[in-house]
Design goal:
Layout lengths: L1 E5 L3 E7 L2 E8 L1 H9 L4 E9 L4 H7 L9 E4 L5 E7 L6 E7 L12 H4 L3 E4 L4 H10 L5 E4 L3 H6 L1 H8 L4 E5 H8 L4 H10 L4 E5 L5 E5 L3 E4 L13 H15 L7 H18 L13 H14 L12
Parallel strand pairs: 1-4, 1-8, 2-6, 4-5, 8-9, 9-10, 10-11
Antiparallel strand pairs: 2-3, 6-7, 11-12, 12-13
The chain binds adenosine monophosphate (AMP).
């Protein structure tokens, strides 16, 4: 059994109030893989350039991730993204995006990648996400991410591909932007009408919310005193959610399972933001993850506060 993820494998230049990095391993598929690899074998699908360093491939492949579907394009340049974060780390400005080998990327999955148990379509052009779905042999669970660019420029294609997946994992602002609804609840319910059985809205330091036909669930972010670099937090979260579902293959993917999966996504994302890029996830242990999941469980328990005594 395995998880296939299609998305960017990148070099990032990032500036945050805590410091900067000129060129570090990044990309949606990279951050996803480093998280999901705690749960199952991951197969990232995507191109890199001739400039992609063997050390970075080794980092991508820790915990057994298989890079058979990572294609090196001779003479090509790896996708490059650069961004700067505001003082509160919630706002981010993209300074540069150089598509490099990603510009010509048409996903062609190996037989093993097609046969995945679980599929994650990271943030790429919706038409390419559809092409990946076409190639897969009916995964047990499918989820996708997207971004404001595709909502603005490829809305119809995005709506179509949303109708073909089980779960949508988007930022809350994107859920609203996609539907034009003012409240997150109304917006998420409208997305459920398009076909998926679950919508997960990521809310940065405020956590994440789950909407299904069975109900609603919300989890705060793990409370951290200091955040160093939020880059990849969303993809790490998705890696935890999707990875946990892959690991629970005997159970139906229902509201309860998704809520538990969100705890793993939240815990993993909290480690990701403690250091730059992939630095923290690359040397994270599963015991550390379990400890934060247990803490999140404690943080979200409460008694029914007031019961009126009857005379
Ligand atoms: P996140 O912080 O979870 O939104 O993910 C950030 C990661 O996404 C970075 O490592 C970037 O390399 C990657 N990224 C940024 N812009 C794009 C884009 N337009 N397409 C694909 N990946 C991107």
């Amino acid at each position: 059994m395995s998880i296939t993820v299609v998305g960017s494998i990148a070099y990032d230049a990032v500036k945050t109030p805590q410091g900067h990095r000129e060129r570090m391993l990044g990309g949606a598929a990279t951050h996803f893989s480093l998280a999901a690899s705690f749960f199952d074998t991951v197969r990232p699908v995507g191109p890199v350039g001739a400039d992609f360093a063997p050390d970075d491939l080794r980092t991508l492949c820790i915990r057994g991730t298989l890079a058979d579907d990572v294609v090196t394009i001779p003479g090509g340049e790896t996708f490059f993204w650069s961004g700067v974060y505001g003082e509160d780390l919630n706002s981010r400005e993209t300074l540069d995006t150089r598509l490099g080998v990603f510009a010509e990327f048409v996903p062609r999955l190996s037989t093993a990648a097609r046969a995945c148990d679980v599929l994650f379509l990271a943030n790429i052009q919706p038409a390419l996400q559809a092409l990946v779905l076409d190639q897969c042999d009916g995964p047990r669970f499918t989820a996708l991410d997207s971004m404001d660019l595709w909502i603005e420029t490829a809305r119809d294609a995005l709506v179509e591909v949303i109708g073909r997946v089980d779960c949508v994992i988007l930022n809350d602002s994107e859920v609203r932007q996609l539907t034009g609804r003012g409240t997150l609840s109304a917006a998420a319910r409208e997305l459920l009408e398009l076909g998926p059985s679950a919508v997960i809205a990521k809310r940065g330091e405020y956590g994440a919310a789950l909407f299904t036909r069975e109900g609603f669930f919300s989890l705060p972010a793990y409370p951290l005193a200091a955040v160093v670099d939020p880059t990849g937090a969303g993809d790490t979260f998705a890696g935890g959610v999707v990875g946990y579902i892959a690991a629970q293959r005997a159970r139906p993917v229902d509201h309860e399972l998704l809520a538990g999966a969100m705890a793993y996504g939240t815990a993993l994302a909290s480690f990701n933001v403690e250091e730059f890029g992939t630095e923290r996830l690359a040397r994270l242990s599963f015991d550390e993850v379990q400890a934060r999941v247990a803490a999140l469980h404690r943080f979200t328990q409460f008694e029914i506060p007031f019961v009126k005594e009857t005379v």
